[in-house]
Specification:
The protein has a 34-stranded mixed beta sheet that branches. Strand 53 and strand 54 form a beta hairpin. It is globular, with a radius of gyration of 33 Å. It has nine helices and 79 strands.
């Protein structure tokens, strides 16, 4: 957790911003040049030189603020202290994130209104199929070849008030019912009396080959399966309430039903669970082409039961046919919606099961199979699909998401959306059409989880064997196609703080007006009291303060600390296997107390997520938008607990900052009067001397933005990428690069968005209990700036990159990278260009950050850990080299900041230190005459006229 304020570029003609009236400009500028050149300038001299000129400007600036209520930079003076002003400023900076959330909310509301209107129209329409047990309605099959009624009593029909109820009492866990027609009239309720774990198969053998018409209600506590090879239609007046529902226009045998819906393995393949050919095997179902469709009309309502406990799983709805179209409303709380189209279907258990450990799907996976030349495979959603803390899967050859598909994610159960083709089918296509909303929002409940639970999910993330490099602690929109994936204009694909992972063997296209958003949650409310940590002092906590450990004066006392000021000593230091966390003075080590507080999904998801494209080619058109912006935490005004220690020097020290090398005589309890005769000591506490708590004003903390990963062989990137990260007034420290955004301190600056061109594979890092990413090249040749050409697989426009103000740019190529125009990233950012040959003909700027060039970078070895490794060239005969041309500046200098003139201008403070430059090749490294590699430090001139 942290605080926040926008990263802004300063006028680099001078290290500070001056008014024209400044008479000391030559002297100050000379000192600035000396510091930039690394010359030693005594602090006292520097301070005296600055002070004379700056006092006048400071007084003028303060007078202006008092008179106008605004700081010199135009910001309201109240912005330094007002929580509301900070939140407003964050909202203005992150308005795209807020706007997309509002767009998703409007889309859901509009779809709900449309469904309600369609339902009213359907209910008011004329009579449909007959009600109850009647010709053309519900009719039991009595034909000698197809009849069968097992493990259920005969239907019982009752009528009352114009309504008909047909009750079927199940007598065993699995019932098989054969019907001549299974049509449910508008005023009919079919109720299956069964236990939640029971299932009933309703097979329809209509001699006239008509689809089933569901116009009324179906109710059950368990699983209801309706199988009609001629198709199934749920009209706008229908309503289904079950634990699970399977509606299939493809057959299921009695033997398969008795085994369950899951497919049996046969070698490396699986026998379809749903198939029209009763002799189907994993390799052949040539006589089993699908002939019927499953259609849910606008106004229809299909819902599974909401679980009653946190540990109970929700239900599923599976619709499977030659074509599957949903225009209605399907809801599966904590469960799964599956729409699938094909000739046969393989169904397997999903994530967390022994049968399918590599799955990204919690629930079931469904894989459609198609016969060669078959017209099956259209899946279309124009309605409303809802799966709170669950999964939505659309699988077929032609998947069209035209409506609203929305899931939610929590700390216990992430939401997922899968839009899938057969990755081996080059004719496959997934389209997110105009006006569609595909969203995974944050769960609104107040459930929390410990950090150790999040760490366990992260640890499992690199174990997926399906080739999908995903994080299991984040929501996931997974889109895969053997052909093309297209995001059309005015479509919205949103996963707050989550992942949108796209793989298209041919091409992915993000059209003008399309929006993809994985920005972090904005305005997450966090209590100020969450910064309080209570510890009980024993010898272990004082193990690095031997004087106090041996003196035992602090033993067995409960002490309050402020977690924001703890200092981390990384794992491996002095032989320790884990991180250690010390109070600021080094007195106490308190790492064991930090993981016992619960955190909500908002805190988990305040960091921006990941958008990743893999496959053949990527096009992002002008006017499209990919939002990676970081979110914010709004820390509420509240109380900070304090404990005061009595030093042997007679002074009081607040425990969070108490020096570790001073001996303490105990806790301050007030004026103490000792009664020796009775062995009693009275204490009279004075809160004016050592307050036990203080009220602290709220503030806003910016969190890291996310990343865009372009892991395609070719790419044309012209669309907008929002890389914003809010920086609060208190975020003045550099980031701890060992941690992800979630684990950064509230005082650490947030990282702007990252662009990675190349492949990323997550690897669990035991030392930091987080993920590191192993990167590699996909494209052959990449150029930055200059004119594009056929000899380049990817051309990145330098002006476009500069405008993004990236926090990180990492580019990997198999053969060569050429920098033809100057390139910069935001202060504190990194530029990494890795290829067999790297030619730098223009400047690279990463102020206070890092620049890395060459074909040597870190990869993961199972036996050796992280090691320097060589990029593998596509052409082995290609000679490795890095060439930095004449006059080129590699600029990693620290920033200069003047807080005396602009107290709100803390944006550059975290980047005062010079950065790093690493140029490493297995071949030649050429630094041409006149080239400059600059890592000199900057400085901060503080409001109290001190210089850092």
């Amino acid at each position: 957790m942290q605080r926040s304020s926008t990263v802004s570029r300063r006028n680099e003609s001078s290290p500070f911003s001056f008014t024209p009236q400044t008479r000391l400009r030559p002297l100050v500028h000379a000192i600035a040049l000396m510091l930039a050149a690394g010359a030693a300038v005594p602090a006292a001299h520097a301070q005296r030189a600055f002070s004379a000129g700056w006092m006048a400007q400071k007084n003028m600036a303060q007078g202006t603020a008092l008179a106008t209520g605004r700081l010199p930079n135009g910001m309201p003076a109240s912005a330094l202290v007002s929580p509301q002003a900070q939140q407003q400023r964050a909202g203005e900076q992150l308005q795209r994130s807020i706007g997309n959330l509002n767009l998703a909310a409007r889309g859901i509301a509009a779809q709900q209104a449309a469904q309600e209107a369609a339902r009213r129209t359907a209910l008011a329409s004329g009579q449909g199929v007959p009600d109850g047990m009647a010709e053309g309605g519900l009719r039991v099959d009595t034909a000698s070849l197809t009849a069968g009624w097992a493990n259920a009593n005969a239907p019982v029909e009752t009528r009352s008030g114009g309504q008909t109820q047909v009750t079927i009492a199940q007598t065993a866990p699995q019932a098989i019912l054969n019907w001549e027609t299974f049509n449910v009239g508008r005023n009919t309720t079919v109720k299956f009396e069964q236990q939640p774990s029971w299932a009933v198969l309703n097979r329809v053998n209509d001699p006239q080959a008509r689809p089933s018409q569901i116009q009324g209600r179906i109710q059950a506590d368990g699983t209801v399966m309706v199988v009609n090879r001629n198709g199934i239609v749920f009209s706008g007046s229908s309503q289904v309430d079950t634990r699970n529902l399977v509606a299939s226009a493809v057959g299921m045998s009695d033997a398969q039903f008795r085994k369950g819906i899951y497919s049996d393995a046969q070698g490396t393949k699986f026998v379809p669970s749903l198939a029209n050919d009763l002799q189907t095997t994993a390799n052949s179902f040539s006589h089993g082409a699908a002939t019927g469709d499953v259609v849910v009309e606008a106004g229809a309502r299909i819902a599974t039961r909401r679980p009653e406990t946190v540990t109970e799983a929700g239900g599923y709805v599976l619709l499977a046919g030659r074509e599957t179209r949903n225009h209605g409303q399907i809801s599966t709380p904590n469960g799964q919606v599956m729409l699938a189209a094909g000739d046969a279907f393989v169904i397997r258990k999903g994530l967390g099961t022994d049968e399918n450990q590599a799955s990204t799907t919690r629930g079931n996976t469904v894989v459609p199979l198609r016969l060669e030349g078959s017209g099956a495979g259209l899946v279309r959603n124009t309605g409303l699909l809802q799966a709170e803390q669950g999964d939505i899967t659309l699988a077929g050859r032609d998947v069209r998401q035209q409506g609203v598909a929305v899931s939610t994610t929590s700390v216990h159960t992430r939401g997922t959306v899968h839009l899938l083709n057969d990755t081996a089918d080059a004719a496959g296509k997934v389209t997110l059409e105009a006006g569609s909303v595909t969203a995974i929002l944050l769960d609104e409940s107040a459930t929390t989880a410990l950090d150790v639970q999040r760490n366990a999910m992260i640890k499992d993330s690199d174990k997926a064997g399906d080739g999908v490099a995903h994080r299991r602690d984040q929501s996931l929109v997974r889109i895969a196609s053997g052909g093309e994936v297209e995001f059309l204009g005015d479509s919205l694909t949103l996963a707050t703080g989550g992942q949108v992972l796209v793989d298209a063997a041919k091409r992915s296209s993000v059209r003008e007006g399309a929006r993809i958003d994985v920005s972090g949650a904005v305005g997450v409310r966090v209590a100020m009291e969450a910064n309080n940590v209570e510890i009980n002092v024993q010898g272990n906590e004082q193990r690095d303060a031997p004087r106090n450990r041996d003196g035992r004066a602090l033993f067995n006392n409960n002490i309050w600390l402020d977690r924001r000021y703890l200092v981390r000593v990384p794992a491996g230091t002095n032989g320790y296997e884990t991180d250690r966390w010390y109070t600021a003075g080094g007195l106490l080590e308190v790492g064991g107390y930090l993981g016992i507080a619960g955190h909500g999904i908002g805190e988990w998801s305040a960091q921006g997520g990941t958008v990743q494209f893999g496959g053949g080619e990527l096009h992002t058109d002008k006017g499209s938008s990919i939002n990676l912006a970081g979110g914010t935490l709004d820390v509420q005004t509240g109380k900070i607990r304090q404990t005061w220690l009595k030093g042997s020097d007679g002074r009081l020290y607040e425990a969070s900052r108490a020096p570790g090398d001073l001996l303490y005589t105990g806790l301050y309890k007030g004026f103490e009067s000792e009664h020796k005769r009775w062995g009693v000591t009275d204490a009279f506490y004075n809160p004016l001397i050592g307050a036990k708590e203080r009220i602290e004003n709220g503030y806003t903390v910016g969190r890291d933005a996310g990343r865009l990963v372009v892991a395609t062989a070719k790419a044309t990137l012209e669309g907008d990428i929002d890389t914003s990260a809010f920086q609060g007034q208190g975020q003045t420290q550099a980031r701890d690069k060992s941690f992800d955004g979630y684990r950064q301190a509230q005082t650490a600056v947030a990282l702007r968005g990252q662009l990675i061109v190349g492949k990323q594979t997550p690897v669990y890092d035991k030392a930091t209990e987080g993920l590191r990413y192993m990167e590699d090249a996909v494209a052959q040749r990449i150029a930055i700036g200059g004119a594009g050409g056929e000899d380049q697989d990817i051309h990145l426009d330098a002006g476009w990159l500069d405008a993004l103000e990236l926090g990180t740019l990492r580019v990997h190529a198999k053969d060569a990278i050429a920098v033809r125009e100057a390139l910069r990233v935001a202060p504190g950012g990194d530029i990494a260009l890795h290829a067999t040959q790297v030619q730098v003909d223009a400047g690279l700027e990463a102020r206070g950050g890092g620049i890395a060039l060459g074909n040597v970078f870190q990869k993961w070895s199972a036996s050796l850990g992280w090691i320097d490794s060589l990029a593998a060239p596509l052409k082995p005969e290609l000679a490795a080299n890095v060439t930095i041309a004449e006059g080129v500046l590699l600029d990693a200098r620290g920033l200069w900041t003047n807080l005396a003139l602009d107290r709100a201008g803390t944006a550059g403070v975290p980047f005062v230190a010079g950065g790093g430059i690493r140029v490493q090749s297995s071949g030649d490294v050429v630094v041409s005459p006149g080239a400059v590699l600059d890592t000199s430090a900057g400085a901060v001139y503080r409001a109290d006229h001190s210089v850092q």
